[in-house]
Write a structure and sequence with these properties.
This protein is α/β, with parallel strands linked by helices. The chain has 3 domains: 168 residues, 3-Layer(aba) Sandwich (Rossmann fold), CATH 3.40.50.970; 153 residues, Rossmann fold (3-Layer(aba) Sandwich); 175 residues, Rossmann fold (3-Layer(aba) Sandwich). Helix 19 links the parallel strand 19 and strand 20. Helix 1 packs across helix 2, helix 3 runs parallel beside helix 4 and helix 12 runs parallel beside helix 19. The longest helix is centred in the middle third of the chain and has 21 residues. The chain is globular. The mean pLDDT is 89.
Length: 579
């Protein structure tokens, strides 16, 4: 019996083991939604309240699972809403398929109601971007779109006029899912030998571990241990090896640690494992250190820092061959590692004092320490953009048994709640904690009710300081006076209760600890902790020259206009970041 084209489309998704589709139904996509309804025992349709949340959740699912994330919406306004989440997927290089509705073919190009040129609109975000113009090859195009999303680690967008999936097709389509396989490039032996020699000859080797090492965390850790090499994690790679590993120097950059910054300035060999780290100001000065770069993407080699050896290969394969080609340890000298560890120990003594702060409102450092000490070892963290990112980078110790996601390259506010929803749907037996600033949460808060609808017992923490705090510090670092950063406070706990979840307000450290302990015990519904936090400055691990000039300019302008000195962090904290 002939199938509808929409039914073939869904069959292809099933072949590719798609388990969830995030979105909202509507007139120009309803034929596809109806086909999903008929297969709801195999694919779950997750109804969200805003299409941006659908695309952010699909991107988060891809980050967490390594599998294709799928979202859909009507054409026109719904499609436009999805752009932000799709750019998040593009910039974090994860595979996502977006199915967009469109007006019926007979109305195309007539400026019909809600007609938007989505192929043109999505041209920059997509690695595959097609307007469906016929029924017979719809399944084939869907199959090709998914392959391309996997091959190019990006977003595939299909615009589907709603009258086409309704039509029947006689031919049975067999997808390529079962035969699809990504292959690793072959390792160049000469380059491998040169890399080994560079490691042997180095005095101060340092590794920068990126998200590309996600599937090789234990192998990279063992290699660094046996060769006495300290390492720095990029923020997206947090937890791949483990923040408490004895060779760890933390993160580097504005959100990083001072020991990481200082190690970068002193290394003579930088090993870059699966990273395209963009903040070149925090890398060694070109010419001061040699570099070995391992990445499956050839375009990333040498992009941020000159590469003496570039290996376009799987990290596991490189480490295996480096180990098998040597009868002795490549780098037996532990002098640089021990110096870095002593530096980290001094840093951690200062961090310990911050973790123990007891204030009203709650000190963010202490709040994250409470999460750190109580979160189970299989927790999934979904972290929003802003001060939530700053504090989690420095005070949340993530282990390899946990997961940590954020919007790392797009840096879009409002990513944490959609990420938490995707995490709990894909890993129902694991604890999920999202941390959001009040500004970020307000952008997507309507979808807290999505977590209520699907009975998702996740913990959603709102850092409430009634301001856009990270932007406050950005303005100051740029030498600008603060403007339009204050937010109107609202009772987020009452909102959570009204939505059908559990809302708890915490204004002291003790209240937050109690709220967190209560939240862990709640089942079948989400919890929102409205945590009033102090407006502490998340100072960079190292204040570099341009930032120092900016802070000085801000201070002088503030004194001139306000006739008083601005409130500043404790002097000892500021001095520690400078020297």
């Amino acid at each position: 019996m002939a199938q509808k084209a929409s039914e073939q489309l869904v069959d292809v998704l099933i072949d590719w083991h798609v388990k969830h589709v995030y979105g909202l139904p509507g007139d120009s996509i309803d034929t596809t939604v109806d086909a999903l309804r008929k297969q709801q025992d195999q694919i779950g349709f997750v109804q969200v309240r805003h299409e941006e949340v659908a695309s952010l959740a699909a991107a988060a699912e891809a980050k967490l699972t390594g599998k294709l994330g799928v979202c859909l919406s009507i054409g026109g306004p719904g499609a436009i809403h999805m752009l932000n989440g799709l750019y998040d997927a593009k910039m974090d290089h994860v595979p996502v398929l977006a199915l967009l509705g469109q007006v019926d073919t007979q109305f195309l190009n007539e400026e019909y109601f809600q007609e938007v040129n989505t192929p043109q609109l999505f041209a920059d975000v997509a690695v595959y971007n097609k307007l469906i113009s016929a029924t017979d090859n719809l399944a084939e195009i869907v199959d090709e779109a998914i392959r391309t999303a996997y091959e190019k680690h990006g977003v595939a967008v299909l615009t589907i006029p709603d009258n086409l999936p309704e039509q029947r097709v006689s031919d049975h389509y067999i997808s390529s899912a079962s035969s699809f396989q990504l292959t690793s490039p072959q390792i160049d032996d000469n380059r491998l030998n040169t890399a080994a020699k560079l490691i042997r000859d180095s005095k101060k080797p340092l590794a920068l571990v990126g998200l590309g090492a996600k599937k090789a965390g234990s192998q990279v850790a063992a290699f660094l241990e046996q060769n006495h090499i300290p390492f720095i994690s990029t923020l997206p790679a947090k937890g791949i090896i483990g923040d408490n590993h004895p060779n760890s120097l933390g993160n580097v950059g504005k959100l990083g640690t001072k020991p990481a910054y200082e190690a970068m300035q002193n290394t003579d060999l930088l090993l870059m494992f699966g990273t395209n780290y963009p903040y070149t100001a925090y890398l060694p000065k070109p010419g001061t250190a040699k570099s070995i770069q391992i990445n499956t993407s050839a375009s990333a080699i040498g992009k941020r820092y000159p590469a003496d050896v570039g290996l376009v290969a799987d990290i596991k394969d490189v480490i295996k061959q480096l180990n098998s080609s040597e009868t002795t340890i490549l780098h037996p000298d532990d002098g640089f590692l021990k110096a870095c560890q002593e530096n980290v120990a001094n840093w951690n003594r200062w961090m310990t004092g911050k973790r123990e702060l007891d204030s009203k409102p709650v000190a963010p450092e202490a709040l994250f320490n409470d999460i750190n000490e109580t979160a189970p070892l299989n927790t999934i963290y979904s972290i929003d953009v802003g001060t939530a990112t700053s504090w989690s980078a420095r005070f949340l110790n993530v282990s390899p048994t946990q997961k940590f996601i954020l919007s790392s390259y797009l840096g879009t506010m409002g990513c944490a709640l959609p990420g938490a929803i995707a995490a709990k749907i894909n890993y129902p037996d694991r604890p999920v904690i999202s941390v959001n600033g009040d500004g970020a949460f307000a952008m997507v808060m309507q979808d807290f009710i999505t977590a209520v609808k699907y009975k998702l017992p996740l913990i959603n923490i709102v850092l409430n300081n009634s301001k856009l705090a990270f932007i406050e510090y950005e303005q100051q670092a740029a030498g600008q006076l603060n403007y339009q950063i204050d937010l109107q406070d609202m009772d987020y706990a009452k909102f959570a209760d009204a939505a059908g979840g559990v809302g708890i307000t915490a204004k002291t450290s003790e209240e937050f600890k109690n709220a967190l302990n209560r939240a862990y015990r709640v089942q079948n519904m989400p919890v929102l902790i409205n945590a009033y936090v102090s407006d502490d400055a998340p100072l960079p691990g190292k204040i570099v020259g341009q930032e120092a000039k900016g802070y000085m300019k801000f201070g002088s302008q503030y004194l001139k206009e306000e006739k008083k000195i601005p409130e500043l962090p404790p002097l000892k904290d500021i001095l520690r970041q400078f020297f």
